[in-house]
Amino acid sequence: MNKIKLLTIISIGLLASNIMLIGFILFKPHKPPHEGPKKKIIEKLQLSEMQTVSYEEMIKWHRQNISAKETEIMFLKNQLYSTLNRTTEDTAVEKIIAQIGGKQIEIEKIHYRHFQDIKSLCRPDQLKYYETLTREIAGLFAHPPMKKHKR
Residues 58, 117: contact at Cβ < 8 Å? Predict the structure, then answer.
């Protein structure tokens, strides 16, 4: 086989694979955007339009505060793992770990307050839906378990 035939076969193969790739990108089914628990909570509590507007403000507050705490945790984790490259006293490492734990406690308090705020948003007739929701909260926010890696 000469070089021209080999280059022609390779070119045709690359062209075909590119066409297939473009086809997969253009014609794959699109997933709806992830709305998280927001939509489910609005539906389950049967929130009015005014309540939904207030709830969306609560979500903004919640997200801003959680994001700030997560940023602080990432900073602390960077500090913690940078100690691996130098000699550091165990007390300094333990202090950073305790600070990370403290930030995680603050995150859980923010989550808890968020649901208290949602409850305060409910009318008396909606509280039965809120009680049902609180039983389902763990399921709404649960992450799938991590897969075990084989060693």
Answer: yes
